[in-house]
Amino acid sequence: MTTTALRAFVLDLTALDDGVLPVLAGELAHAAFYAIVQSVDPALSQQMHDAQGRSAFALSPLYGYWRSPYDRKVKVSAGQPGWLRICLLDDRLFEVFQEHLLGRALPTIRLGEVRLAITHVYGAPGSHPWCGFTTLDELRRVHATPTHWALEFASPTAIRWGEADNQARRIEIFPQPRMAVAGLRSRWDKLTGDAWGREFEEWAERNVIVGTVRRWQMESFTYQRQRYRGGLGALEYHVLDASRAEQVAHFNRLLHLAFYTGIGYKTTMGLGQMRIL
User: Fold this and answer.
1) Which residues contact 276 (CB under 8 A, 6 or more apart)?
2) DSSP assignment letter at 69
3) What is the sign of the dihedral through the CA atoms of 259, 264, 267 and 270?
4) Terminus-to-terminus CA distance in the chain, angstroms?
5) What is the domain extent for residue 23?
6) How far apart are CA 63 and CA 60, in angstroms?
7) I want to staple 271 with a disulfide (CB 3.0 to 4.6 A). Which of 57, 130, 174, 266 is the partner?
8) Confidence class for position 1, pLDDT limits 50, 70, 90
9) Residues 61 and 151 in one domain
């Protein structure tokens, strides 16, 4: 039994200060999340810093605040509402999150110099489009075999995909099906002990295509003084050959996993937020 719980929460926020934040505020949200863990469980915080591989959480950008078309900064005014999404893939992190919320009369997070009060938390499935709860064992029991999926990529998505001949990193900003599920497949195998391997990815490359692209755009963002790009929008995946039901079911399973983990890299900084529509 693989009972690891996957949780997605949405936090309603009210700004307590005026301020200006970077376009995604992801680096600041990442730092704020670690500050919360440090304040509640320093040992876990150190363990997370020392861990190799993917982190057991994902964050969204800061939503609801006006973004200037000129300098692409997020302008925050005291009293203004907004929201942030947090996904937790570890029970200890969930306990830290609970203690932070319950241990204060008015829990807050700080993004740079801007304090935001957490006024409401959505966690129950159905309470918000971006909330959810499942376990890996429940995902194992997902055997549906849809032949198409409509997907929303709600924050810039960028996927590391090998290297050029000169060892330059190759970053893809359009999530072709194999690219989208390769990291998910690897993570699933590590979490569950399964061994779908690259054969599954190669099946996806041959048999799943991008159908309709409803809208797609590129967005630039800065992280640690470097400029990055990611793609976001809505598109559909279609299965060309659905004769291997087990493969189709697992592709579907991984897209459900992505709701909690995100897709691509820097998902702890606000990138790669995705849901099935």
Assistant:
1) 149, 150, 151, 255, 256, 259
2) T
3) negative
4) 29
5) 5-122
6) 8
7) 266
8) very low
9) no
Structure tokens at 180: 């989208």
Alpha carbon distance 131, 244 (integer Å) = 31
Token pair listed for 131: 């909330």
3-class secondary structure per residue, 7-18 = EEEEEEEEECCC
CATH code of 168's domain: 3.30.70.1900
Task: Read off the pTM.
Answer: 0.92
Distance in angstroms (rounded) separating the CA atoms of residues 277 and 274: 9
Instruction: Classify residue 131: in a domain, yes or no.
Output: no
Q: Report pLDDT for 188.
A: 95
Structure confidence by residue, pLDDT tens digits, 39-48: 888 888 788 7
What span, in angstroms and rounded, lies between the C-alpha atoms of 233 and 195? Answer: 32
Report the percentage of the chain scoring pLDDT > 70: 95
The confidence score (pLDDT) of residue 53 equals 55
Backbone angles phi, psi at 2, to 5 degrees: -115, 95
Rounded to an integer, what distance in angstroms lies between the CA atom of residue 18 and that of residue 254? 40
Report, in angstroms and rounded to the nearest whole number, the Rg of the chain calculated over CA atoms.
19
Domain count, the chain: 2
